[in-house]
Model the fold of this input.
Amino acid sequence: MQQTFASIITIGDELLIGQVIDTNSAFIAQQLNSIGISIKHRLAVGDAWDDIWQALDEESKHASIILITGGLGPTSDDITKPLLCEYFGGKLVIDEGALQNVKAIFKRLDRPMIERNLKQAEVPDVCTVIPNQRGTAPGMWFEKNGVIYISMPGVPHEMKGMIENYVLVHLQKDRQLPSIIHKTLLTAGVGESFLADLIQTWEEALPQHIKLAYLPNYGMVRLRLSATGAEKGTLEEEVSAEFDKLQLLVKDYLVTDEDEPMEKVVAKLLLARNETMATAESCTGGYIAHLITQMAGSSAYYNGSVVSYSYDAKEDLLGVSHNLLVEKGAVSEEVVKQMVTGALARLKTTYAVAVSGIMGPGGDTEGKPVGTVWVAVGNHENVMTQRFHFRFDRRRNIELTATNALNLLRKFILSVA
Amino acid sequence: MQQTFASIITIGDELLIGQVIDTNSAFIAQQLNSIGISIKHRLAVGDAWDDIWQALDEESKHASIILITGGLGPTSDDITKPLLCEYFGGKLVIDEGALQNVKAIFKRLDRPMIERNLKQAEVPDVCTVIPNQRGTAPGMWFEKNGVIYISMPGVPHEMKGMIENYVLVHLQKDRQLPSIIHKTLLTAGVGESFLADLIQTWEEALPQHIKLAYLPNYGMVRLRLSATGAEKGTLEEEVSAEFDKLQLLVKDYLVTDEDEPMEKVVAKLLLARNETMATAESCTGGYIAHLITQMAGSSAYYNGSVVSYSYDAKEDLLGVSHNLLVEKGAVSEEVVKQMVTGALARLKTTYAVAVSGIMGPGGDTEGKPVGTVWVAVGNHENVMTQRFHFRFDRRRNIELTATNALNLLRKFILSVA
Done:
């Protein structure tokens, strides 16, 4: 069965000057993959008539489905709609459904509606309207020479609604699509070169239609198997068989056999054991708490965090000894141990994790270099500590501290019978 | 003066299946803009020989500089280096500098080096090597028919080092580049349609070479002026003059005249007044603390946060009354007020901000719908509250709560003489 290819075109100068990070494309790609459509290109172009026009011409040579986001707003820099209207040789007309939608939204928000808002309901008469249940700009579906063009707003929430409620269903209609399978596992504590040598024999014997990818991320490596095929059942079996072999080969470093972040791995462990955790964060400043609480349902195993950015907060909220802070400094094994004890007591949990470090760029006080981090994890019986030294920028150091602290907690939990 | 255009090609299947979000392109775009180079396209392609080859052919028609990231690792799915070698008609040779670098890195990490690692030091003999001070894979600089091709690793930290230490300097050599100026302001509390009407007369009179862009983000709109020109001084003056007019027109909604997030606006206010803040977070789960502490130097005005995800934590760490929690529920005006009072007392700051809400998807308890949020901000004299209702997904609701809470704090601070 032939693969069906789509290209994603994102429109907006903000993407070309680096003012905005494109998260839309990743979502669209995942969703299309899930129904068997592969992505050929992701292309970002500016708010320039000729560039957009040319991108439509070009991408239609590479893919039979073109998804376009952005440029549908009510202001002068939004040129996607008139351009598509001309590209497909239509004329702009008011769409009654879209008009009712705009009116309903303004009524709900109790805001006055101006001419500019009403224009949002105009669409080329050569398109099928994709309803927007979350905003005023309608989506548009065009077909020309066997290629489908789908135009959606750049607002992530509105685009997602259209993909989930309309686009996926309509792309599957009257169309035989293959299955695409991805299976990903996560390893920790081993470099990608070493892993590659470890699995080389197996990798070289992989069937041609199963692809292996390495996704290294500073000491953690994700390995992904991908395959496309006509028969979902057979494909699933083939990939699973290889995935099982791979897991066995890397078992000493395996963190999870799912494509999930470390906080999810810890969450599943805690849920399975009906246990709870707390955090006491200095240098990560709430980032570990954020990773955990952005997952729905986290209140079942997470009680909270003390973000103790000052000495006072460490003493008052976590009961760290003033003398210890002065003697050893905030970034020390002794202090993170007391932070764990304090968090366990104050937040009444099974486990606690504490971090204190120097994230940079400045702050290399106490004779400790920037990037020094102390992590402690423990329960009411034991505390385990580890010292790290990260050499990246502040943001990256915070991320690495968080992931490694959660990994240490994972190991600690597993070590408890 | 003619504009110089660059295209960014990112290589990797992970980008096309939506497993990884591309943050590299935004960084590269910002950096190139800063030296006067405009970005024409950002294109993501998979780990497929023909697709990469074709992308090089295509983009060299649109731009005179092609920046390529990804596919330089030591594993079998990394095909960028052999491909570039063939594309530019070279052969792979060991680069002595790159070899010493690989050896030095392994020595520092005290890890055994394998054959695969040594191969990292191979480069096509038709390129100039770009030193990698942060990793093992060297970057490569090619020139062909007047087009420059720059290949860098996909690891953000390594790529950034090459851009900052090598690429920017060498792109400016022997080349007259124009100036590119962007000026951005942030408004809050007004929709983009309304704004557009408000500034329409001014916008229509804008000189042709100054472009206006609207970047709406749920109730906050960034307005950006962009211009490219030969004379930096003149351009700066022209754009500034228009930017001043714009600021005056939107003054009732103006949050800041810089391209900076809300947490930065609050930080600058606090620093200027030599005051401090704390946070007490329920539904945002540490995200506000993270926004603040990811900025270097935040310990000067930020003491910490209590992330009180459980009733117990609200009572024990913030002193919220048990009866109040039972009577009014955690998501209530009374509770967030007590959270502010508790945070002020425990974290000893000038101001505190507290949030409590239901972020979804589940949790519409207490007769309050998902998306309901109470925010309180205050100092030791006064507390101000506001109720919000966000209708998005969990992640987006968290982000919106954080930004709006910080905006409320900003207004409160400004209201204090």
Chain B has three domains: 4-172, 179-256, 262-415. The mean pLDDT of chain B is 94.
